[in-house]
Amino acid sequence: MSVLPSLALGLALGVRHAADADHVAAVATIVTRGRSARGAAVLGAWWGIGHSASVLLAGGALVVLRLPMPVRLALALEFAVALMLIALGIRGLLARRRDLPVSALRPFFVGIMHGLAGSALLALLVIGMTDSPWVAALYLVCFGIGTTAGMALVSALFALPARLGGTRVISLERAVRVVAGVASIAIGVSIAHRVAVDDGLFAAPIAARP
Q1: What tens digit of pLDDT does each residue of 81-103 get?
Q2: Cβ contacts of 94 within 8 Å, gap of 6 or more
Q3: CA distance between the termini of the chain
Q4: Fewer C-beta within 10 Å: the chain N or C terminus?
Q5: Measured between alpha carbons, how far is 62 from 187 in angstroms, rounded to an integer?
Q6: How far are the Cα atoms of 75, 96, 135 from residue 117, in angstroms, in the given order?
């Protein structure tokens, strides 16, 4: 694949990737405590930066070496993300105040975990797409830019209830926080079950995936 198609495909798939249910659920449990669209977008961007950094490092290394990630390691990373989603959901449900400051480190590290868990499949996609390390690198960079921009936009949408004002915003913000927390827990439990039971993380040694 040439340079321009790689640029367009990476950006488009990056934006789409940011809207995956587990990503949105994780970030929603964090940004629903913010008051402004700008602040929420910044937190979402930090998630994207962390995600992009881990994809570039882990996925880039796999692409350069042209090796698949060990199956059990990939599953273990997915399971860790599932536990993280459950923890974020519980934390979001237990939160009492919506105006507490949220450090950028939290979405940054959440993004890192998501990026590590998804880097195996992304690396396989890039390996199958091109033999050029430069095109592969460009694709990963554009994918990261698209993911960061997409998550910033998605996160900003969660701040819209703050524009309503009065008691309505408090009720709506609380409802969004509860929905985000429940969704995060449900998605985390679903992923954990799939990885542990269906994919056999804790079973006998796993044969390499095709």
Answers
A1: 999 999 999 988 887 655 556 67
A2: none
A3: 23
A4: C
A5: 28
A6: 8, 31, 23
CA distances in angstroms from 186 to 70, 75, 79, 189, listed in the order given:
27, 18, 14, 5
Beta carbons of 153 and 41 less than 8 angstroms apart: yes
Q: What tens digit of pLDDT does each residue of 121-157 get?
A: 777 777 777 777 778 888 888 889 999 999 999 888 8
> Is residue 203 predicted with pLDDT exceeding 60?
yes
Q: Give the pLDDT band (50/70/90) at residue 189.
A: very high
Per domain, the residue ranges of the chain are 3-198
| Predicted confidence (pLDDT) at residue 208 exceeds the cutoff of 50 | no
126 within 8 A of 137, measured Cβ to Cβ: no
Cα 131 to Cα 32, 89, 140, 209, 210, distances in angstroms:
42, 41, 14, 21, 19
